[in-house]
Structures are given as C-alpha cells and as structure tokens.
Amino acid sequence: MSHRAPRYLLYGLLREKKVNLSSLFDAFSRHEKIWLTSIPRPRAIALLALTQGLASVNIAALGAVAPSLEHELAIGNVAFGLLSAASILTGALVSLPIGILGDQQARVPLLTKLIYIWAAAIAISAISPDYAFLLVMQMVAGAAGVAVGPVIASLSGDLFPPSWRSRAFGLIVGGELLGAGIGMAVAGTINALGNWRVTFYVLAAMALILAYLLKKGMREPTRDNMGKLAQDVLIDHTPSSVSTPVGSVKADTKRYLLEDIKEKQIQPVATRILREDPTYWPWLKSARTILSIPSNVIFISASSAGYFYFTGLMAFGVLYLTQRFDLNTMSASLIFVGIGLGGIGGVIASGWLADYLLRRGIITARVWVTGISFLLTIPFFFLALQTSHKWLEITLLFFGAAALGATNPSLDAARLDIMHSRLWGRAEGIRISLRYILEAAAPLAFGWVSEYFPEQSCHLAQCRHGYGLQISFQIFLVLLAVATILLLIATQTYPRDVATTLFSEQPTRS
Questions:
Q1: Which is nearest to 428 in space by CA: 312, 286, 255?
Q2: Taking the CB of residue 229, how many other CB atoms lie within 10 A of it?
Q3: Does the keyword Transmembrane feature in the UniProt annotation (predicted)?
Q4: In the chain, which end has fewer C-beta atoms inside a 10 angstrom radius, N or C?
C-alpha cells in the first residue's frame, strides 16, 4: 500500500463537498451532545445490539477458555480452531433459510426462537464428555447465533430511516463487540474461579433473560416504510427547509440520502430496476438479483476480509496475550476486553461521522468512512506487533481495534441503501453465508500459521513468546489492504446502485 494512499483517500472524500474539520468538531461538541437522548426507538437498539452479540459471545468465550479446553480435552491450536470454524460454518449455512423467513414472517418471534436455541446449545455444551460432543453443540450454537444477522438487518431497515442507519448500526454493532467483551470477561473470570463448564451455564442463563426481554419489549415494525419514502421523494418531493437542530429526531429523519440522489440527478441502472414485489420470489431469482448489484458484491468481499481478521483475533487474542506477556487467563481476558473497548468506541464514532458527512451532502460518505477505517487499521496493528514494549503494544492494539470496529456500521448501513427493502433478509442471509464460509477458515488459518512458525524457529530475543500468533496477525493484515482497494472502487458504483434501489421501490406501492 503506497504512503500516498491516505492522502488520496482523504482527497477523494473532500473533493465531493468541502468538509470543514472545525465545523465537524463543533457539531460534535455543541449540536450532538444530546444525540443519545434523541435516538429513535432506543429500546429496540439496545435489544438488537445485545442479540447481535450472541455469535461474538460464543467465539470470545471459547477464546477465553482456550487454555482450559486445550488442557482438559487434550487438543492443540488446530483442533481448538475447528470449534470456532465449525460453529461459524454451520451458522453460514443456516443463514440462507433464515433470511428467507425474515422476509416473509414476523421477525421478532423468529429472533426470540433463535435465542432460545442458542441458550439451549450453550447449556448442553457445559456437559460435554469429550471433544466430539462439544463440537456438535458448538455447531448448533453457531447456527442460531450467526443466523440472527439477517433478521436484525431486516428489522433495522424498517425501524430506522436512511439518514439514521449508520448511527443505529454503530450502536447495534457496538453490541456485537460488547457481546465479545462480555463473553471474554465473564468466561475469563468464571474460568479462573471455577471452570469452563460453569462459564457456559452462566452464558445460557443470560441468553434466556435476553429472549424474555425481546419478547416483551419489542413490537414488529411495518414493512412498507422504504416504499413510502421512495414515493415521497420521486413523486411528491418538495425540498425541505427545516431549521430544527441537528441533534433532534425530526432533523435526523429527513431524507438526506434519497433527496441528494434526486437533486444531483444520479441515474439508476435501468436494466436492474425491479418492476414487481420480490417478497415471494424463488430463491435463485432473488440470489441472482442480489448478487447482480456491483456495490453489494464489493461490500460482501470487504466485510468478509474484515471479519476474517476479527475472528482470528477473537479466537486467539487471549492465548496470544498469555504467551506474549506470561499472563494468566483472567488477566489476559481483562486486557483483551480493554482493547476491545476501542472497537466499541470506533463503531459508535464512525456511525456518527458517516451520518454527519451524509447530512453535508456527501452521498458516498459511508463508503469513504469504511475505506479509511480499513486503511488506518493496518499501521496500528502492524506497529503493535513490532514493538517489544508491553503497554505500547496494548495501546496500539486499542487504536487498531477502534479502526477495525469503525469499518462495520457504515458498511452495514450502505448495504441496506442499495437493496430493495423486501430483499433485506435474503440479501443479508447470502452475505452472512458467503462471509462466514470464508471466515470459518480464519481460526484454522491463524492456528495453522502459528504452528508453522513455532517459537523455536525464531532466534531473536523479542520472539521468545507468542511468536507464531504474532506472525499470523501480521500476515493476514494483507486482507485489510485488499478491502481498502475494493472500497475505493465502490465509491464509483454506490450512487447509481442507491438510485436504482430508490426507483425499484416504486412498483411495490399501489
């Protein structure tokens, strides 16, 4: 990656419409101080965020109890990596039918059932007599935990308007990272005080509480919101002159993205405008339509690269810290949770930033914010893995986690922008399946590379501990560079794909 790349990325962002950095920070300090109190449907965000974290809780908990599992079940890094890989791969396969159900059935009851299944599988994992039994139960837990993704995406699209989606996903994805932190902290602490079996019982009990809260606290939203917005913008459009403060709900629900598409006369791709309601389309026809959208293919690829690296970190992060700094599992887990807080801050900040730039008229703001975040992740992690100073490495890992986390909310929002609302569940199901099929290889790949480069192969003093995993984390940074390049391409395809979706919503309105 050239040293000019950051300058090029920033230039491309700024040339669309001048952004004054002082006004950006002024908006953050003055206008957005109360933005948390103006979130539409805050209860829904909280519940969806906690549910989104199920898969991460599972992976992080496995990572936290890795030393105990490897010792008690007499397995190595590759066999342990297979636990996470099998869990992820099963979830990828199940996401396809769940995506179809998410487009055709009530989503809140469906989400509740998936949480119950996850809780049951985790609880049964606690009585595993051997490795094979645990592997099967982790596959069931992975199926339920990963498959919540398409349902959450569909719900979010109907709950939040386009101008709010980056911020909403910032909080929801923050729940995914928070779930990883909870899983890491709970698992690490309980494992140190008791054992890994008690850890799974506690996590299952927490999931049952979540299912109850979701069932009692969330109502099913209507599915025709995007159709109404499209009709208003394309037929009954009247430019708004609202003077409401930026932080208020009324200002945030303005049709910034859709109105900008029309005002800048961005033309749709005529051959891809949908002329009928796709709710009950055959699956293959839906898949062809979903994968014919150029920006969607790019977003899936970039997201897969980012989550591949994230999964490797979740699977082996605690083990790396225990080896690198000679820590016990509990101490390493707490440090890893602290590093993960950077990721939570990154997802919230990037969601706000992308929506702020969108309100400034930068149509491709979500794509640029994601691309720059991917780019910034690379030097932070690379430098962290080069230093021999403990707290400097932890600090750099914190900022790297913030940058990696910042890639998610804007990309999640952008995927809804380019997809017909009646295809959201299936589109997310396909994305999750493709993403997780690739991501399922992450624990195995990280584990294999770490064993291919044993500590004995390095003769430098600073390579004495955790050398194999250190090499793994460095090698796979190349995937983040690829994601950055792909998102540069998406800045050219995204506006027309949004326009095509806007026009495609019209036939669903009678």
A1: 286
A2: 20
A3: yes
A4: C
Query: Looking up tokens 């993403």, which residue turns up?
Result: 435
The two three-digit tokens of residue 18, written as one number: 């001048």
Q: Residue 44: give the domain boundaries.
A: 40-221
Cα separation, 400 vs 384, in Å, equals 8
67 in the same domain as 197: yes
Per-residue pLDDT tens for 134-179? 889 889 988 888 888 899 988 888 888 777 788 888 888 776 667 6
Residue 173 maps to which CATH number?
A: 1.20.1250.20
From the list 508, 27, 455, the residue with the least C-alpha distance to 227 is 508
Dig out the tokens for 91 from the structure. Answer: 């979830």
The H-assigned helical ranges of 360-423 are: 365-386, 390-405, 408-417
Cβ neighbors of 338 (< 8 A, separation 6 or more) are: 394, 398
> Which contiguous run of DSSP H or E holds residue 336?
helix 329-359
Say if residue 389 is in the same domain as residue 435. yes
| Mean pLDDT over the full length of the chain | 79
For residues 320 and 451, state if they share a domain. yes
Q: Taking 50 as the threshold, does the pLDDT of residue 421 lie above it?
A: yes
Is the pLDDT at 20 greater than 90, yes or no?
no
> First and final CA of the chain: distance in angstroms?
50
Q: Which residue has the tokens 């929002």?
A: 413
Round to whole Å and give the CA distance between 51 and 214: 9
**What secondary structure letter does DSSP report for 53?**
T
H or E stretch including 251? helix 249-252
Alpha helices (H) in 406-509, listed in sequence order? 408-417, 424-439, 441-452, 467-475, 478-504
Residues 201 and 341 in one domain: no
Question: Pick from 296, 312, 339: which is nearest to 496 by CA?
Answer: 296
In a domain? residue 396: yes
Spatial separation of the C-alpha atoms in residues 181 and 99, rounded to whole Å: 27
Q: What percent of the chain has pLDDT over 70?
A: 79
Domain count across the chain:
2
Residue 367 near residue 487 (C-beta atoms within 8 A): yes
Question: What is the C-alpha to C-alpha distance for residues 425 and 363, in angstroms, rounded to an integer?
Answer: 24
pTM of the predicted protein model: 0.75
Q: Predicted confidence band at 255 (pLDDT cuts at 50, 70, 90)? A: low
CA distance 429 to 93: 9
